[in-house]
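In full, the data.
>
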Amino acid sequence: MPKKSKKNGILALASSRRKMARAMAVIRNGSGRLYINGLPVEVYATNEFVRMKILEPLWLASDYVSDDIDIYVRVKGGGFMSQADAARMAIGRALVKYSGSEQLKELFKEYDRTILKGDPRQTEPKKYGGRSARARFQKSYR
């Protein structure tokens, strides 16, 4: 396991983005809890699917990391699903950095590559002359 950092007991730090959501995960010594925006994950993610998506990296990494760490995630922007994806990616990256294990990195890649590498697609901005990014107003010549 990595040594304890001198800055506020931080063991690992990672960030990620998904659409307009930005997340940053910090791993510290603790009692095995996950906090998102200061709330336990059970309170933050009331939707069961969202909670399972956020917790996936922890379930996969249970053999590679110890149970005495706390993970603090700050996430902002975007919708609830893109926030969940950004938090999941930040947690996965932080766990890989904390463990220093190539096997864990390969496990994440094999299971689902988006745990480590995000989807770069974002919404295209609306342009003039139409109601959306690509659609144009129809013309009538009568």
Residues 10-115 form a domain with the Ribosomal Protein S5; domain 2 fold (CATH 3.30.230.10).
